[in-house]
Design brief:
Helices cover 32% and strands 31% of the residues. The chain is α+β, with helices and mostly antiparallel strands and 243 residues long. Strands 1, 2, 3, 4, 5, 6, 7, 8, 9 and 10 form a ten-stranded mixed sheet that branches. Strand 3 and strand 4 form a beta hairpin.
């Protein structure tokens, strides 16, 4: 069970999110209110989503605040699309609870799926002082952290950066250049996290709707960085982490 590791990541990331995003947009508040109603229903009766699949959770709960995947390298190698990953291995989805003022209230609904079926639903308070590492280490597993609410990067702004200058530089230099904006996807080996692939979704026009910034790093140093098409990120990630 991967709960405590996930909660630790969530707490750290939530500090970043609440400092960098505006939650006062009417459409966000409206969708979040509906999500909270569904969460309450699930908390009262977990059978509402037990044994349901990933698509069912999304259609009834909405987009989670964060999703973490634990996927066997062999299964990752077989994956062709993001949808394949959504239906393989262990997935943990976090839906935070908000107050009537649209502020985080310190608790969240945790949903865990295994092989595309919900196997656990829990509500937990967040207290970083009592969180301990419980996840069993496995060098045959890749971890994928995905966040639905990150800062925004414009394609035109990234195109104006000489990305070649960041090769062999520390990742933190790139973070500074991007004003602390974190990647939408972070893929790495469970043990050591020596090699990682970070992917930033880019705001763009309809013509360039599939562009992303992808960063390949080893021991915190950038080995390659480029703008690519989103339909290539699975193959490029596998090529870097599995070879």
């Amino acid at each position: 069970m991967h709960l405590k590791k996930l909660l630790a990541s969530f707490i750290i990331f939530s500090v970043f999110i609440t400092g960098c995003n505006n939650f006062e947009k009417k459409d966000t508040v409206s969708s979040r209110a509906k999500q909270q109603q569904t969460m309450t229903k699930v908390q009262n009766d977990v059978n509402e989503i037990m044994n349901k699949d990933y698509d069912y959770v999304l259609s009834n709960m909405g987009t989670p605040y964060s999703t973490t995947y634990w996927i066997d390298k062999e299964k990752m190698n077989e994956a062709k699309t993001i949808d394949d990953i959504n239906k393989t291995g262990t997935i943990a989805m976090i839906y935070p609870k908000y107050t009537s003022d649209n502020e985080l209230d310190g608790s969240a609904l945790y949903i865990e799926l295994y092989n595309n079926k919900v196997i656990e639903v829990q509500t937990y308070d967040f207290n970083i002082d009592i969180i301990e590492e419980e996840t069993e280490k496995d060098n045959s597993v890749l971890v994928i952290d995905k966040y639905s609410e990150t800062g925004e990067l414009e394609l035109k702004d990234i195109e104006n950066i000489n990305l070649e200058l960041y090769k062999n530089k520390d990742l933190k230099e790139l973070y500074n250049k991007l004003n602390g904006i974190k990647p939408t996807l972070d893929v790495y080996e469970m043990i050591g996290k020596t090699k990682s692939v970070e992917i930033y979704m880019l705001n763009k026009n309809e013509k360039d709707s599939k562009k992303v910034l992808i960063v390949f790093a080893n021991n915190g140093k950038i080995e390659d960085i480029k703008i690519t098409n989103s339909d290539l990120i699975i193959d490029q990630t596998k090529g870097y982490l599995l070879n």
